[in-house]
Amino acid sequence: MVDQMSGFIQVLTERPALVKQWPLHLKRNTPLDMDTVLAMPTKRASTKRFLQRIQCFLDPSFYDGLRTSRTIKKCALTAAEIQQAVEMGKFEPCPISDIGAQVQLPEGMHGVNVFTVPELKGRRRLITEPLLNRVIPKHHVPRVHYDTRLGRRQRLRYARYMLQIDFEAYYDAIPIAATLRNKFVFRARHDGRYYRLRTLPTGARWSVAVGQAVTWTIVDIDTPVTITTLIDNILVAAREGQEREFVLAVRTVVARIKAANLMTSPNRDELEAMSDEEILQLASANTVFLGEEYTWNGRERLIRNSVKTVAKLKLALQKTSHTIRSLASLISLIFFALHTTQMNPARAFKLLRAYRGIYRLTFRGYDWDDAVPYIDSSVARSLQEIGGALVQNPWWKISDERHPTTDEATYDAVAFTDASLEGWGAVLHLRDAGATEMWTYRQRWTEDLERQLGGDDGEAERVLEKLRQYQLRRRVRSGGRFEDPTCRRTASRRGTRHTRNHARHN
Fold first, then answer.
1. Residue 266, preceding bond cis, omega within 30 degrees?
2. Tell me: the pLDDT tens digits for 386-415?
3. Rounded to two decimals, what is the model's pTM?
4. Are residues 352 and 429 in the same domain?
């Protein structure tokens, strides 16, 4: 895989003109039957309520009164590619009666940017990004909440059986009504004609909520086994002794998928035709889900990064020079891969500082694709050391579940920090054999505070203590969740040497 991806990357960097010749990745699929999904019974009433909430995005009246640019850029798809998309039900020509001979879009019609992005499989993915994104605020779109990666691993730790089912070209399988299609119009470069989308835009702000609502409804069945999802990815998992319930859950989910008229991988019809033993055998193999591979050691699941993640990391580490974008992507990839392991994340502290530094360059006039002007030798060394350890990719045990508490008496060390550029620094309380120490690590402005107080270090500490109490009260009032995104809390439980980082954000 590394060699194959390396070849595609070489084409991307050295011969970008050839990328335009890569095939457009389109799949034939069947349209979702939304009415059937709306009629499906669900175990939780909240699931059906969420599905009802997203129906407004499929209603043309929701977009009434919104204004976007009347002129739209021509898309770079070739005539053959547009024709292919038309034949596969993705696009259709705009009716002449809707536009006529106008160059600008009439009132009530909205543009959509249509472009492609290369994939490291030697193909291009079609992206459709509506101009309506700019006028529909984020708070109008229902928030989608998922398990954390730690939470998901805990649910899967003792799962003997794991079966993943993916929807094929999911957004392309969600049709939009003819009365809604004029909200997503683009113009072809080769003939200047106007076309419009027939399926859910892949880059719409609300598409994730729409897709997730459908998936949640399909899998919300009454079962004791674990079912976790992320948009078009479904994982059904069960422990030993739950074989009957597991097979029943798989068959029920597949039947509901088939009723909704969605295509899957593995093929829904093949899954439906399998015997119980074949389903259990398929679910006993190693499983890759959301970038993490799981294997069974006879007692519990072990975990490591997927082959694809490791291949990307190997290729990125081979680069001798970086743009701001590529270095930020590499550091992000390292932290994603690091989270899968039990390696000490403190090793990557220099990378966090480097990430902040290169991100700030974009506010100083640098473009994301400009070369990074300077990389400190310690940062370069950390990239190779941590990245080199990650590409070894051994199996790791899933760590025991932890339950941090706000009771300071259970910790040897408690640090209240605000480490942002304008933050006040940190207050560290240490307890050892009944004695208590307090250390303060100050930002420059807190040193100025001490000078303003006439050098009274005690007064400065009292001010910082008030700040600490203020942060503590906010945390208690919010049920243990920090409302200030710049606030961090680090603690070490009494009687152990393990440092725990517990940061919760809104």
1. yes
2. 999 999 999 999 988 888 888 877 888 888
3. 0.79
4. no
